[in-house]
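ok posting inputs for the D-xylitol-5-phosphate job
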Amino acid sequence: MTLPVLIAPSVLPADFSKLGDEVKALEEAGVDLIQWDVMDGQFVPNLTFGPDVIASARTHTSLPFEAHLMVLTPDVMAKKYVEAGCSRLIVHAEACTHLHRTLENIRSMGATAGVALNPHTPASEVAHVLDLVDLVLVMTVNPGFGGQSYISTMESKIRQVRAMVDAAGLADSVHVEVDGGIGPATVSGAASAGANLLIAGSALYRDPKGLRHAVDDLRAKATAARS
Ligand code: DX5
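and the output
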């Protein structure tokens, strides 16, 4: 049985001067978890959240935190993000010379592990590590910034990853996540291709009817697309 539709915000568009209030508002809006887009200015041309920033928001919500590590050296910082309160760490296959070992190390810290694939990276990159993850993230933009356009050609890769997860008998334990340009006009395509965990940043914050409406609308559209 495939895991349920989950909606998670990217915190990138939030007001960084009041992150505690922002995560509280996201919880009240009904998101299922919070994704922190961690960027090191090397793997991607942007710099965002250190572990202390995430730790400062940890006490303001009971929601799970996942860190999307868009960093060149995930092994160096992984433990700090777990200690900051992230229960899942997502590493990029492109940044890991020894991906299998990196995932094992993350699990040894008591966190769950996910693998992210940039648009050019084939689904086959995760073929031999599916037993170590609870999430595969198909990037639907090139990482580094919010507010970019959804790359619809990634839907074939979403289908491939979904097929791999299902064929491995992991549909009830491994999420297929998408991130980048997810909004009312694109969420159905991603969900019908097999994504169940949807990350949205700008689409949540630019909804004139507010966060709750944006979350409910994405959830409803994704659920309808899967049925
Ligand atoms: C890219 C970031 C963004 C962000 C979501 O590195 O990971 O994809 O989470 O941004 P939106 O939803 O605004 O495209």
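notes: The pocket of D-xylitol-5-phosphate is lined by residues 10, 12, 37, 68, 70, 141, 143-148, 179-182, 199-203 (CB under 6 Å). The longest strand covers residues 34-39.
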